[in-house]
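Re: the 712-residue chain
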Amino acid sequence: MELAQATDEGKSLNDNGVLDEFLIPFGEWMDQAVDWIATRATGALSVIEWPFQFLLDLIVDDILVKVPWWTVVVAMMLVAWLAQNGKVAIFTGVALTTCGLLGTEYWIETAKTIGFIGVAVILCVIVGIPIGIACGRIDGIWQVVRPVLDAMQVVHSFVYMLPFIYFWGIGTVSATMVTMIFAVPPLIRLTNLGIRQVPEDVVEAARAYGAPERRVLTDVQLPLARPAIMTGINQTLLLSISMLGIAAIMGAGGLGRLLFQALSTQSVVRGTSAGLAFFLVAVVLDRISQRDGESTGGLFRRIKMAWAHRSDPETLLDEAEAAKAAAVEESKKQESSYFAPVMAAERPGIMVAGVGALAMVVSVFLTWTSNAGKISGYSRRVDQLELEGQSFSGLSASGGSWFGYLVLVAGLIILGSIAKVMLRPGRGLRWLTTDGAAIAAFIGFLVAFGHFIAAPSDAAVDPGQGIGVYLALLGGLVAVIGTMMWIRVAPHSPLHPLPSGVAWGRVISGVIAVVFLTIGMFSAWSFDTRSDTVLSADDLARIDELKAQAVADPANAAVYAAEITTLQTTQQTNAKIILDGRTSEGAGLGIWALVLGVISLGVAVLSSGLAGLDDRFRWVGSTVLAGMGGGIFAICAAWIGTLARATDPNFVSGVGSFIALCAGFFVLASARPVLNEFRRTRVYADEPARTDAALAATVDLTVDETEPAPVG
């Protein structure tokens, strides 16, 4: 028989089935190896597993999940403040609190996610930095480690996750191991690069002075390599975040698990809520781990860059070094300058704004509503029927609630801005300044106006409007007038020349905001599926009948209970009460949000350059625009927060309020580019000392008093 015609069994070589007769049992070999390792090397597997399991149990199960939520928030804020600055700390607190307000389940998974990523990064640091140092100091080690790193980054994580599942099973431990394998290479590479980039003459000088190798490493090489090492840690963290989805597939907990479940069950509620929490946690961890002077960029862009440069993270240092060099140059230039002191022309506006802000602060401690809850009456039945004769302050759940809180915050921001400018003009937090105070004044006034103009719920007793609301309105208006007087004369100038063309993007953002506000006005601002609302008298009678039958016939009580549940669920689905933003039965805030949006569009058009390209006019217009956008955002946030704070089961705020909130954010964000450019005017040492009159000339004013400006 000829081989070219057939095999021993008669199959032709042209038949694909002949391949089964020459099988290479590679899979069986690996199965035998796995079985042998699992049965004969249990001790070694336990040793490898122990640090992962110990840290996960300690950090996640014993600390983050068990301690109160606010403890984790405060601890993360402290870490952010120590690692970065107060601005990052505040953002961290707001972001993590938002994750908690999504619900207890989301907070627990948020804590687990923070712990999971923290453990992965800690172990990467423990392993990666020593290996990177060894690679940087010994060429032979680098020659061995480099191809291993290449293999770790070339092979897809789906391939090497299998042995970890075989040996350590499904769960968080194996997922952490896979994450570590994927995320540690950039840290090793950048640590190696940082050690090698230390100037050789500096190292030799240290050795020449008799420093031992340990001191050369700790006192010379590591400090100078710190920027590269910190960049490596940040890249490791970003890659760890990007692995959370695969970790969820491997059985790890956290927000990745919720997202995976949402995809499996097609749950919009779970998917969007978990997605928001996931995004906020990722941004927080990224901001905390960034090196000083590094360009922040967007989270998704940074993760994309980390993925694209897994094998050559050294290129990421170039952008950071350029930004740092520019910052150093600017710092040197500013060392010989001082900020313009407070001018005499500014003081009247400051005093008026301070009086208004003080009135806003005092107002929240006075009566805002009485006899019934004005806003909370929509969401809580007791606030409609059982509060007659009672009065509530601006901070009470049945009073101003989140409207009052936001008025209080706005007033404190204005007072803080005044104090900071008077004591340290131009220094400290960027937004505690003239335009920040003006934006806060607009927000405080508009929030108080929103509470005042909102139609009350259909209560048995109409809620009385307390003196606190009127004082908040008056104080907000006075604060707006005062800050506008102040901003008109405050010596501010742009860091760079503003674009000479019309800012059409701002106009487009205003148009988009008006469209969103229109959609939001016609959309739901509240969903009411409470049983006493959606069930008719016949339904209630039927439920009472079924309950009586369950008592009389206990053997079939489960059947009657199921029928009651079915009836309630059906009615809640079919007969839910939806109030949009314009209906007379609702608060009507959607209409007023749209009115404010149209006004904001007019301000956007005027400040975009169509009414003139004067820099100062555009700055003042941008401040007003930001105040209007912030006011729309704050009114919607106060509505959502008040209903969430005081609510019966089966009552929630509607998507229309969220759409309007997003529109307010668009308006606010459109003003940010111009506002970011303006700072209090600097006076440089090589310039002659300026008087108030000279400073006033920058804002086209004439000042009689001439107090000499301090030099130095």
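The two ends are 104 Å apart (CA to CA).
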